[in-house]
Amino acid sequence: MRNIPDLIQELIPPNNYQSRNGFSNEHIVLSLSEKEKVEVERRLIEMLDETDDDLIGETLAIMNSTDSLPIMRKRLESAKNPSQKIIWANYINEIKGGDQEMKDIALQEMDRVTEKYSLTSIFYYLSRFMDSRINEKIRSFTNDKDYLIAYNARTSLGIDTADLIKR
Q1: What are the residue ranges in the chain where pLDDT is below 70?
Q2: Most buried in the list 22, 102, 141, 161, measured by CB within 10 Å?
């Protein structure tokens, strides 16, 4: 068994642009032995109780950690902005394999995301709900006059962007 504190550091690097830009820990999570998974999950849940670091939430979602659902709910309820609410609802939805309440929350919060860069980054999380109502709202942005919004809406739904790029 690998050293758990080292694994945690490898899974959850410092929360800064240099350490997390383009970072993915899915391959590390998938390589954990059952024993490591149990201990890492326990430690990550403890960490999430102290901080709202969404990489911890993402990691627990990859692990399909049903034990983390109460603390995920706490993070969802304490989230201050609509983007964060959507992200936490997404993790809960993924762990549960679909959850109507989380889909409804995401749909409601989507209307409150007004800042351009928040909107472009949130399309990815919204599309993961695999909900026709949410996808329809995303689709309404696929021809937005703002290139970044249209491009990100299209890519989140798997829609070809060639004609958009030509414009």
Answers
A1: 167
A2: 102
